[in-house]
Write a structure and sequence with these properties.
The protein is an alpha+beta fold.
Length: 161
Amino acid sequence: THLTRDNMALSFTNDVTFRPHNINAHIKIANTKYEASYVCDLFASQLDIYTGDLKTQKEINKYIENGNILCAYYNDNLCGALQFEIKNKVNWLGHLAVDLHYRGNGIASLLVENYLKIGVAKSDTRFQLWVINSNESAVNLYKKFRFTHTGKSTISMLKLK
């Protein structure tokens, strides 16, 4: 079975407001070796291994060096991460994962919200991402923030070694 990924985009406008959260979580820009190791392990365990898009520890370290990984803490426990980067004046959300034990607590929403706030603060108001279209939870999360399908889709091919 091949996975179909859809491209979603958002042009952020000032009329988008963020709701206050009542969860015991906070988001920070990753900056420690522990966070780097955690993010690499989290992505490897939660994301599709067949797309060939998983990041190495060296790549994760570079994203952290550039301030392009957000970490989520719930009750002071590291529980999720979001990786992003800016390419051609577009703020790309690359990877988002929340530990299975912490799902359903609003962590993913909090990560996406902080990602958008960082982009807006840097005047990068164009956002894009690729999402597996059968992952209804992820698609609905992005729609909640007004991301829309651009009409572009890809079908993943297996990465053979």
